[in-house]
Amino acid sequence: MCILIHHTPETVFTDEVLQDFYTHNSDGFGACWGDGDKVHVLKHVGSVEDIITLYNDHVKGKECIIHFRMKTHGDIDYENCHPYHITGNIVTGN
């Protein structure tokens, strides 16, 4: 099962916690957050070291949704990594 997290600005995940999430759900990482009138979507399929860097550089300190994927169907690739843009500023985390 995937991990879906509501991340508050006060939340701080250590490298060890991110490693634990990744160990159980290593098939993709994604995050989305609002900034005024724009919704930002960050997705990555790769190493835990890359995900830790992305988290620290782009996610930490923001209110956002984080998704760690566990493949149930489809390829392990960027296209199947959550979150998805539905239309405009509408995004789904799962």
What's this, in brief?
This protein has 94 residues and is an alpha+beta fold.
- Overall mean pLDDT stands at 91
Bulk shape? globular
Q: What is the SS-derived class? A: alpha+beta
| Sheet having the most strands | 4 strands, antiparallel
Characterise the protein shown here.
The protein has helices at 15-24, 48-59; strands spanning 3-7, 29-35, 38-44, 64-68, 84-87, 90-92. The N and C termini lie close together (11 Å). Helix content is 23%, strand content 33%. With 94 residues, the chain is an alpha+beta fold. The strands form 2 sheets. The protein has a 4-stranded antiparallel beta sheet with strand order 1-4-2-3, covered by helices on one side. The protein has a two-stranded antiparallel sheet with strand order 5-6.
Secondary-structure topology with pairs:
Blueprint: E1 3-7, H1 15-24, E2 29-35, E3 38-44, H2 48-59, E4 64-68, E5 84-87, E6 90-92
Antiparallel strand pairs: 1-4, 2-3, 2-4, 5-6
Main attributes of the structure:
alpha+beta; globular
